[in-house]
Recover the amino acids of this structure.
């Protein structure tokens, strides 16, 4: 069971910090390549939609952003739950690091949705189930972050925002299935586990490439943020970079 | 490829405003997030440098 020991090693902040730092540039490079290819396919290879014309191309940012907004919320809630169960500092810090990126993607999903709604429905916003539940998700992210900043004691802030995040996770399946459960103006899923894809294959490829790019972008950004949080919260020495920092400090003197 | 000219590409079949607003807003948000984290990292490093130099620098910072 030597594998387990290797992985467990990285659950300590001291081991995780340099590992995260080494991974970020690799994720960043892959993101740039995936986005380049994804955008090229989205704008130059994918055909014009026979119903929505060129307006449908918003899908290449809208769907990845919306998926990430829901996915990141679940991941944040899982880390919050692990933090509660094991009383693990790093888990709470992960949850803390995910919230701003999740909120950003929720905001982008709503904004790009408005940009898509205006030309196709004639309205920037309608109070239908999909849009309203996604707006509630944005408030949930805001709640998780505000609760944290409003409580001075770090351990209490961790637990309060974790409970808030865990309770709010019920909204994610509501968002996801809202287009089936209610009669919404929002179109149904373009890609589904049961029926497969309703899109042209090049459209689907471009969308999946952009989704993968957004996913890896989120990992890179969250790792970078959790490293900052680790230093800010725990006054961790910049473990792997300690010698470099000392040298800089000496030179500054 | 369905575009015969650059202006046709930017017009996006009349939906240019909506399409480009979406993509530019997404790019701005991501760019801003990366920049903010870059600065936050610089701030944490500066703090570390100060603490490694000793208590005197922390009080002046």
């Amino acid at each position: 069971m030597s594998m387990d020991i290797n992985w467990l090693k990285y659950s300590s902040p001291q081991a995780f910090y340099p590992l995260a730092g080494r991974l970020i540039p690799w994720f960043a490079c892959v993101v740039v390549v995936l986005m380049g290819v994804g955008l090229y396919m989205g704008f130059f290879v994918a055909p014009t939609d026979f119903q929505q014309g060129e307006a449908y191309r918003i899908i290449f940012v809208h769907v990845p952003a919306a998926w990430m907004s829901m996915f990141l919320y679940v991941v944040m809630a899982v880390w919050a739950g692990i933090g509660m169960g094991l009383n693990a500092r790093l888990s709470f810090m992960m949850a803390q690091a995910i919230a701003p990126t999740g909120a950003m993607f929720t905001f982008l999903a709503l904004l790009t949705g408005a940009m898509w709604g205006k030309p196709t429905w004639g309205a920037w916003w309608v109070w239908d189930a999909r849009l309203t539940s996604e707006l509630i998700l944005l408030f949930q992210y805001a709640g998780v972050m505000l609760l944290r900043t409003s409580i001075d004691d770090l351990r209490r802030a961790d637990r309060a925002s974790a409970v808030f995040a865990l309770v709010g996770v019920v909204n994610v399946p509501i968002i996801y299935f809202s287009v089936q459960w209610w009669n919404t103006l929002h179109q149904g899923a373009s890609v589904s586990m049961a029926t497969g894809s309703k899109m042209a294959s090049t459209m689907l490829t471009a969308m999946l490439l952009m989704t993968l790019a957004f996913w890896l972008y989120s990992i890179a950004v969250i790792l970078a943020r959790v490293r900052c949080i680790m230093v800010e919260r725990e006054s961790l020495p910049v473990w792997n970079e300690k010698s470099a920092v000392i040298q800089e400090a000496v030179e500054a003197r | 490829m369905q575009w015969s000219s650059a202006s046709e590409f930017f017009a996006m079949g009349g939906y240019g405003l909506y399409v480009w607003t979406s993509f530019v807003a997404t790019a701005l948000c991501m760019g801003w997030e990366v920049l903010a984290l870059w600065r936050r990292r610089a701030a944490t490093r500066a703090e570390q440098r100060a603490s490694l130099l000793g208590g005197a620098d922390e009080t002046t910072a």
About this structure: Chain A touches chain B through 41 residues (CB under 8 Å). Chain A has one domain: 23-252.
